[in-house]
Amino acid sequence: MAQTLSYDSRIIVAGITVSVRAIVDTVSNTAADAISVSGHSETSPAPFASDPTWDSFMENIEKYSRYIDSLERTSHE
Amino acid sequence: MFYIFDTNILSDILRFAEVKPQGQRAETVPKEQKKITIITYEEMLAGRIMELGKDPKKVPRLEPLHIRYSLLQETFRELQRYYPPLPFDTNAQAVYDSIPQRIKNRARIRDCRIASIQVALGTDYTVITRDQTDFRVLETVLPVQWDDWSIVAP
């Protein structure tokens, strides 16, 4: 029972996180920053569920990985 | 047992939580048994910093700078949950240096380094990854212990 309650509460928190991100797009920059950071839940199971930059972020990581690969390989040529 | 989430697995958890099998399994593991390496710190922070360096004149639909900084901050916060990261120390370096160059040319370097950290730490640690191809290559030369939680048993 306790586990069920805990799971439900995290889902609710995740919902709030999503709505906060929606607000970020429409309110002033300063206020949005405060909400975005302070509204980030300590218990959110998917804190980046609504990250608008996610695909680009993942591409960046892959680019960085390939850069490290190339550094390592060219240093041994 | 300690579980070392690689960058892809941690990304899946942060993005999808329990929607994906790896997130479901991660949820069953006690917090103190979930680990990440300094390699994942490096990659995730690099990914966010690269986003900050993009030119809005050249990249269509780029998010405002304050959003990108906020996401860097939130990423840092998420990484802190796993602090301290498992280090790439002298023992890991020794393992890494023992990997033949022909293997490093076939497996991604990030996986070589994460595998080296695990091998240096020993069999109490298991890498959780979905980079099966790289780890199958690495296990031909290292006693690397790894598992792929993105696959659901039939």
Summary tags:
heterodimer, A: 77 residues, mainly alpha, 3 helices, disordered N terminus, B: 154 residues, alpha/beta, Rossmann fold, four-stranded parallel β-sheet, 8 helices, 53% helix
SSE layout:
The complex is a heterodimer of chains A (77) and B (154).
Chain A: H1 2-24, H2 29-38, H3 54-74
Helix pairs in contact in A: 1-2
Chain B: E1 2-5, H1 7-16, H2 21-27, E2 34-35, H3 38-52, H4 65-80, H5 90-98, H6 101-104, H7 109-121, E3 125-128, H8 132-138, E4 146-147
Parallel strand pairs in B: 1-2, 1-3, 3-4
Helix pairs in contact in B: 3-4, 5-7
Instruction: Indicate the proportion of strand residues of chain A.
Output: under 5%
Head-to-tail CA distance between termini of chain B:
25 Å
Number of domains of chain B: 1
Report the average pLDDT across residues of chain B: 95
CATH topology of chain B: Rossmann fold
Tally of helical runs of chain B: 8
Radius of gyration of chain B: 17 Å
Going across the biggest sheet of chain B, name each strand in turn.
2-1-3-4
Reported for the largest beta sheet of chain B, the result is:
4 strands, parallel
CATH homologous superfamily designation of chain B: 5'-nuclease
Give the H and E element order of chain B.
EHHEHHHHHEHE
Q: What share of residues of chain A is helical?
A: over 70%
Computed structural class of chain A: mainly alpha
Instruction: Give the largest interface.
Output: A-B, 30 and 37 residues
Distance between the termini of chain A: 60 Å
Nearest-integer average pLDDT of chain A: 62
DSSP E strands of chain A, number: 0
- The Cα radius of gyration of chain A reads 19 Å
Coarse morphology of chain B = globular
How does the overall form of chain A come out from the CA principal axes? elongated
